[in-house]
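2024-03-11 09:14:02 INFO queue: dequeued item alpha-L-rhamnosidase, len=916
2024-03-11 09:14:02 INFO validating residues
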Amino acid sequence: MKYDKTMTYKKIPFLVVFLLFLSPAVKAQLRVVAALCDNRADPVGINPGDLFFSWEMQSPKEAVMQSAYQVVISSSQANLTAGQFDVFNTGVVKSDRSLQVHYSGKALQSAQTYFWKVRVWDTDKKSSAWSAAQQFTTGLFTPADWQNARWIGYEDWPDSGRVVPFVHLKMKAGDPRIFKNARSPLLRKEFTTTRKVAKALLFISGLGHYEASINGRRIGDAFLSPGWTSYDKTILYNTYDITQQLRPGSNALGVILGNGFYSISQERYVKGTGTFGNPKLIALLKITYTDGRTDHLISDQSWKAAPSPITFNTIYGGEDYDARLEQKGWNTAGFADKTWKDAVLVTRPKGKLLPEIDYPVRFLDSLTVRKTTVVGPNTVVYDFGQNCSGIPRISVKGKAGQTLKITPAELLHADGTVNQADGVTPHSYSYTLNGDGEETWQPRFSYFAVRYVQIEGVRVNQDESSQLPLVTGLTVLHNRNAAPANGTFACSNALFNRIYTLTDWAIKSNLQSYITDNPQREKLSWQGEQNFMRTAINYTYNVYNLYRSLIQNMTDAQHENGLVPDIAPEYIKFEGPFVDSPEWGTTAILDSWFLYQFYGDTSVIRKTYRMMTRYADFLESRATDNLLLYGLGDWLDIGKVTPVGVTATAYYYHSITALSAMADLIGKPDDAARYRNRAEMIKTAFNKKFFNPEKKRYATGSQTAMAMPISMGLVEEKYKKDVLHILVTNIQAVDANRLTAGDVGNRYLIRALYENGHPETLFTMTNRDDVPGYGYLLKHGATALVETWDGKSSQNQLAMGHILEWFYEGIAGIAQAENSVAFKHLKIRPQPVGDLTWARGRFHSPYGWIKTSWTKTANRFRCQVEIPVNTRATVYLPAKAASRIYKNGQLVRNYKVEADAVLLELGSGKYDLKVE
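2024-03-11 09:14:37 INFO prediction written
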């Protein structure tokens, strides 16, 4: 284009004036920046009974609240764009509610995609623009919706051969129930599309796990799908939109199956041995054409089946692969499958098919080799520098038939070879080459806690004369639940930052389709981890959908007498406190309470109320004079031992108090009163049994025994200051600022200190590496949080990670006010303790990002705060009576004073606050 001075001179100024005129209106506009269905973006497999909508907003103005909303749904993208809301229209609803807005329209159809959007009004009754268009796809509501799809496999395993529940560890030699490792099959089906495809939805489940492909390409990127469940009660299926992967004419679906927790043979390491049956598949492909017609492709005997190159696989023992058995093109159209046999109709599993509502497990990090060491003839150990849940991915060149043995581990022996401590030997992988150039392989159906990888049977240098295979590439792929990151934290203390990273690796390594105990020895869902760590986990990852899945697992695992066992799914039936410990089992009540407090969900309470009350009744039946005097106690504590009854009864009181509040929330006042009365009786009995009013001491005076009553509201108000004083005095004078609490009590020790005016004591206890604790673990080489304070046992376990609560709620100052729900009312109270000179934190609440960033000098404290739209905050600033307070550069003259803090009441917005 030719440069025109006249155009520039005459037209640009007018445009600038126009934009300047328009700009204030644009900037002042309230915007919907995120719109979620069932707490996910564009979810699939939705059940209408669970359907709800939430959204987040932003505005450049301060103190903005929503005054109304409108949600609309259409049957097509075109209708939504044209304003034809033919499925649902709330109209303008006067409400500040922007979370958990439940669907109340007409019945939705199964296996359909719907399109929706939302707009909102602010307190000045000004409307936002519509949000970006969103969509959700419904699942299959009834067995009939599966269109007579059948469970198929390569070979059946009759119910008479089931070993359920699993045997703990291995069966004894000669036990007639011992079975061989179930082979991993390939299943394929060719089909033809003759018209133009508008939509293709695949609904699929494979037990124990599956990988599916269409025309030779993977469908999705999940690992170990579907998630682990009580297979006799619930089986999860997944939904995929594969419209873009179909081709005109011939197509082929391919599926490979693995064992997972569905079948665990005992050839290698096992935590438990048992089987629900052999691997099996059910699938339905719904194809909708542009002319409105529909085809259904179902799993049945017309599919073909053959053994896969996976010759061994268990979730505990590892996996073997023989590349010579590969059949190239097996999952593409036109493959010659005449030698394959027809798939067989297998014994139908007992569980009900439900859509998987949680995020899938994916590979979300890739670790590279930090150090390579030759440890013996043809044996090399690779150090990746970080312990994580993961699998090796290897590239290699060699001859057909050569086999590599690959062993992952957390530790090394003195001679440099890998050390699978904790009795988990052997967990290993083997790969047999096909000799076809560079080959790349990774396990499909097993994983481990890995920092080191040992490979045997390889060339140890670049010697061309060697006949052994040459490793050309090696990485570790880290698997975890794909829940979005919820927060970040950093401060001026380098040790605290390393503790944060240490704990984060343990958390994400144990977030799978449920929360595991550790990625090597257990892989079970011990309830204590989620009970003690749910708040800390939630500050780092959005676990709403995960906790809904965990609640389903607990409901499925509940015994006839009301007991909710310590693990769920209850693959292994343990005995004594390992099946019934109240500190573990009360998760059955407190998970629902958590989803209400942190996400505002009351629907889960209604669904789980019967399960919760049955468990509460079970606890009452086990109580002696309102006390629970059994269980695992303060697991792995050190120093003074806390009586089991302290931790068990404290959790009993906490859960019954929460149950009373939940009964009120769902309109059951009589139940609420009954549980309130029970809670008061528990509190009275607890203090009578464990509290010495003369010494102001609980039980043995251990950190846990003193802290839990303070944090859980069991201390009578008149004694609280004295009990707190003795706790702090004993920590300083008797324990010499050493940490002694175990994974039950540690959380409450931390909270008792930072919530009650003693963060300096907590700082002193944490800011050291000379005694067992967080710093000690780092000093001795840990890269993920370890099971015990002295660094023994599992090298990757999240149970002691409660310190993150202080990092976020204390140091960064991000918490919600008392009686607030879902962070509607924030409590911003940073704690600039010890030698800290700055800290910053970010937390993604259901209303949006909450951000704090503060710095401290000798004469000034500065805190920058971001508060989401539709919320408010009480901000506490450390200040003296003579201090001057500034907000966004303006002197603040009206404020409240509380002890050593100034209180500011702020609405949404970004604020720069200074204390001088």
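2024-03-11 09:14:37 INFO annotate: Residues 5-27 form the longest helix (23 residues).
2024-03-11 09:14:38 INFO item closed
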